[in-house]
# Entry
Amino acid sequence: MLDTWYSSALVPFSTLGWPAKTKDLDLYLPSSVLVTGYDIIFFWVARMIMMTTHFTGQVPFRHVYIHGLVRDSHGKKMSKSEGQCARPGRT
# Structure
């Protein structure tokens, strides 16, 4: 079983038919930009760059756009695992 960060690091190329040379792989790798929060640069972005470069010889994207995070009234990052995000049908 792969852990979450490891398996998500494979997304830039594994979802495009790799290891076969597919049209999608040629069309979408590398992509132009990744949009993400700063809190997962090490966990996700760095791993995507390392894994994609290792397995394909290409960088997965050319630019990273880093956005802010949604925080609660105490300045803590909002999180589904903390029960802070509203669910449909709940108040």
In short: The chain is about 35% helix and 15% strand. The CA atoms of residues 18 and 25 lie 7 Å apart. The radius of gyration is 16 Å.
